[in-house]
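Appendix C: a fully annotated inverse folding record. The material below is reproduced so that readers can follow the format used throughout the book. The structure is listed first as C-alpha cells, followed by the designed sequence.
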C-alpha cells in the first residue's frame, strides 16, 4: 500500500485453450468485483453503476495531493475525466 492509502493487486488466469478466454474474463471480473466491493448481479459480473474503471494510483495521488496538476492534465486531454 502507498502512504496515501492506495493498494494494488493483480489477478491472472492460465488458460490451456484460447476458447476459454471469455469465461476467464468473466470469472476474473467477478472476483475483482467481489474484492473491490462493487455491485454484482446474475446477468453481468458488474452492474451499470460499477462499470466505471477504477482510479489508478497516479490519478488517486493527483486528486488527493496535487489537484491543480490533475485538473491541468484533464484540461490538456492527457487523462480522461471519470465522474463518480
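Designed amino acids, in order:
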Amino acid at each position: 500500500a502507498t502512504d496515501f492509502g492506495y493498494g494494488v493487486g493483480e489477478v491472472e488466469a492460465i488458460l490451456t485453450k484460447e476458447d476459454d478466454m471469455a469465461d476467464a474474463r468473466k470469472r476474473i471480473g467477478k472476483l475483482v468485483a467481489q474484492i473491490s466491493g462493487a455491485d454484482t448481479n446474475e446477468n453481468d459480473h458488474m452492474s451499470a453503476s460499477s462499470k466505471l474503471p477504477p482510479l489508478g494510483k497516479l490519478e488517486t495521488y493527483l486528486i488527493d495531493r496535487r489537484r491543480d496538476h490533475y485538473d491541468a492534465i484533464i484540461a490538456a486531454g492527457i487523462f480522461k475525466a471519470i465522474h463518480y
